[in-house]
Amino acid sequence: MGAPEETAPGPAPAFLEGPEAFSLTLTLGGRYAGGQEWTVHPERGQLVARVQTDFGGVLPELRRLQTSRMNPRTLASLHYAEGDGRGRAAFETAFDRKTGLVTLRQGRDEASAPLTTDHHDPVSLLLWLRTLGGDARTQFTAPLAGGRALVQRLPDTEVAGVAAHAYFLRPGGAYVYAEQAAPWRLLHLIQPTDFGPVEASLSLPAARAARPERRRSRR
């Protein structure tokens, strides 16, 4: 099975070479709205990303835990789970290449469909965007369980003085800003919500201090 769509060769972010951890601060209208902790590491031939979001401040206190298991080469999703971290996940998708089925479970409801191509989940899609390295195409799609994400390349910009590639995702209307140079970090995310656009920003000074030496990129 191929990747979601052929892309130009891109960089090799740090998470493809070893464990990675970083934090994002959430804001809504410029006011504190919580925090998000990312950890990415290889495990038993897979790449595992765990994202814990703790909403607070001007938003109701709520925790969301997302876990994505991916193919370490293509970053295609193998399994995705989302819940509050206190029990069984409220939503799961499993991509079983042996049986050729994709299975979706939400609460007590479960459904299966033929698995005809590789898919992304909400977490693997963000990590995949980091690897594109400024793909010259202005628009492309990425299959998701139950639909497709339309990715629109926006003009390059800067985030807190750091050069960034910018993407707009539909449906959902989210914006993603990824660093142009090593280690190709997620710098800034904007996600529309019922409360308004929630922004997630990387603490750049803290991120630099955590990585005094940068790995050389693999081309």
Which bin fits the share of residues in helices? under 10%
Total of DSSP H or I helical runs spanning 4+ residues: 2
Q: Tell the overall outline.
A: globular
Q: Using the CA coordinates, give the radius of gyration.
A: 17 Å
Helix and strand composition category:
mainly beta
- How far apart the termini lie comes to 23 Å
List unreliable stretches of 5+ residues: 1-9, 206-219
Q: What's the arrangement of strands in the largest beta sheet? A: 8-7-6-5-4-3-2-1-14-13-12-11-10-9
pLDDT averaged over residues: 86
Beta-strand content estimate? over 45%
Number of strands: 14
- How do the SSEs run, as a string of H and E? EEEEEEEEHEEEEEEH
Q: Please describe the biggest sheet, giving its number of strands, its sense, and whether it closes into a barrel.
A: 14 strands, antiparallel
Quaternary: single chain
What is this structure's SSE topology?
Blueprint: E1 20-28, E2 31-43, E3 46-55, E4 62-70, E5 77-83, E6 91-96, E7 101-106, E8 109-114, H1 122-130, E9 139-144, E10 147-159, E11 162-170, E12 174-179, E13 186-191, E14 198-202, H2 204-210
Antiparallel strand pairs: 1-2, 1-14, 2-3, 3-4, 4-5, 5-6, 6-7, 7-8, 9-10, 10-11, 11-12, 12-13, 13-14
